[in-house]
Design a protein that fits this description.
It is a single chain. The protein has about 425 residues and is α+β, with helices and mostly antiparallel strands. The chain has a single domain (about 25-70, about 110-280, about 320-430), classed as Up-down Bundle (Outer membrane efflux proteins (OEP)), CATH 1.20.1600. The protein has helices spanning about 1-25, 30-40, 45-65, 115-180, 185-220, 235-240, 240-245, 260-280, 325-390, 395-430, and strands spanning about 25-30, 70-75, 85, 95, 100-110, 230, 285-295, 310-315. The longest helix is centred in the middle third of the chain and has 68 residues, at about 115-180.
Length: about 425
């Protein structure tokens, strides 16, 4: 009994230790490592991979229907002493019906045009599943990059706001000291204290947003929700302005786009559906071979079962009251619709390429402007705070400069996110 309690205690302790280890797990990930981890563990990616395997299994299922099938059987008969009587009078003969067993092996196969076309259609289905898997991987990588950059930008935001808060707190303390010695008015110190409180509230809100982004990152990765993710790739390495600008000069090869590839495969599938409808007129060929062995459990009886048998047949459909013709017309209309959809999507993708190029160009211009604006605003804030220390600037000027720098930081962060989002959108369209 004591040993049992010790074992239970050890198991519970081990479980708690394991849970604590999982909860405190730290993941240090570069952007590339985070994307690869998500590709391996993200639920959407796992389902896309399973869809490919399922399509392959369905293809083999269709293909196997064209291959020969073999089955074996054994049956036993016992007529409980019955004797078959032939003739009458002195010429009558009694034939005992002894128990017997019959073993048989039958190999058969059937083939028609619909089976052949069905296999071709399954090949297209596998190809579509594989394209969808690649598209899901592209989307997963893009989502991880978006969240990764958002976290880095939000961390930078907190750093910038903390720096501004430290400067404001020093100014507020200096202003209150001046008030205490009668060198300044209390209203000026109060204005700065309100500005400090407002900035501190903004920082707290930003930190909460940062926590929410980290949770989103864990969901995108498919990682333990209690894990701690540390990002190791700096923002400067991800925000490659030159690379983003090079995208604007890249030609758009529409055949590389996954959406277009799926539409092409859908068009092929619709065309095969037309062929499948015609196959309703095709004959069905079937053949079989059977081996049988009859064994009597007693005296040898009359055996009329041939040991080997071969057969073949051809079935030709003749009349179905126009059903097949209607099916062919319907399939042709569906094919024409798929062709129209592909052509319309092609035009739409080219328009989308132009729009995304404009968006990226605008984002790059805005980023350049906001980068310079942030630099200028930071210099203005430093200059105003320095003047305020020596009494050459008012608290209103400090408050205005503080508000301007917060606005400039927010605009800069938004400009960074716009560049990254526009770049990712164009890269996905180009399938880079």
């Amino acid at each position: 009994m004591i040993l049992k309690r010790v074992i239970v205690a050890l198991v519970v302790t081990a479980g708690v230790s394991y849970a604590s280890a999982q909860e405190g797990r730290t993941m240090r990930l570069s952007l590339d490592e985070a994307q690869r981890y998500a590709v391996e563990h993200n639920a959407a990616m796992q389902n896309a991979t399973l869809d490919v395997k399922k399509a392959e299994a369905d293809r083999w299922k269709t293909l196997s229907s064209m291959l020969p099938s073999v089955k074996a059987g054994f049956d036993y008969q016992n007529m409980l002493g019955y004797e078959m009587k032939m003739g009458s009078g002195l010429m009558s003969i009694k034939i005992p019906m002894d128990p017997n067993g019959n073993f048989s092996v039958t190999a058969s196969m059937a083939l028609n045009g619909a089976m052949v076309v069905g296999t071709m259609m399954q090949d297209i289905a596998v190809e579509m599943s594989d394209i969808t898997r690649s598209q899901t991987e592209q989307t997963t990588r893009a989502n991880v990059k978006n969240v990764y950059v958002s976290i880095l930008v939000m961390q930078q935001t907190v750093g910038l706001l903390d720096s501004s808060l430290a400067n404001l707190e020093r100014l507020a303390a200096t202003s209150q000291s001046a008030v205490d010695v009668g060198a300044a008015e209390q209203v000026d110190a109060d204005k700065l204290q309100v500005q400090v409180a407002s900035l501190r509230s903004s920082i707290n809100s930003t930190r909460r947003s940062l926590a929410a982004l980290r949770n989103t990152m864990l969901l995108q990765l498919g990682a333990d929700v209690n894990a701690d993710v540390q990002l190791t790739t700096p923002l400067d390495e991800i925000l490659d302005i030159d690379e983003a600008a090079r995208l604007l000069g890249q030609n758009f090869d529409i055949t590389r786009n996954y959406n277009y590839q799926l539409l092409e495969q859908s068009e092929k599938l619709a065309k095969k559906q037309v062929t499948m409808a015609w196959m309703d007129f095709s004959p069905t060929l079937s053949a079989y071979y059977q081996y049988s062995k009859k064994v009597y459990f007693g005296e040898e009886g009359m055996n009329m079962t041939p040991p080997n048998m071969v057969g073949a047949s051809v079935s030709i459909p003749l009349l179905t009251s126009g059903t097949r013709i209607a099916g062919i017309k319907s399939a042709k209309i569906a094919y024409e619709e798929s062709v129209n959809s592909r052509r319309q999507a092609e035009d739409g993708l080219r328009v989308q390429y132009n729009q995304l190029s404009y968006d990226l160009a605008s984002a790059l211009e805005t980023y350049d402007i906001q980068s310079r604006n942030l630099e200028v605003t930071q210099r203005v804030f430093a200059n105003v705070t320095e003047k305020y220390r020596y009494g050459r600037a008012s608290s209103l000027e400090v408050t205005t400069a503080s508000t301007d720098i917060i606005t400039a930081q927010s605009n800069y962060i938004q400009a960074v996110m716009n560049v990254v989002s526009a770049q990712i959108a164009l890269e996905n369209l180009l399938n880079n």
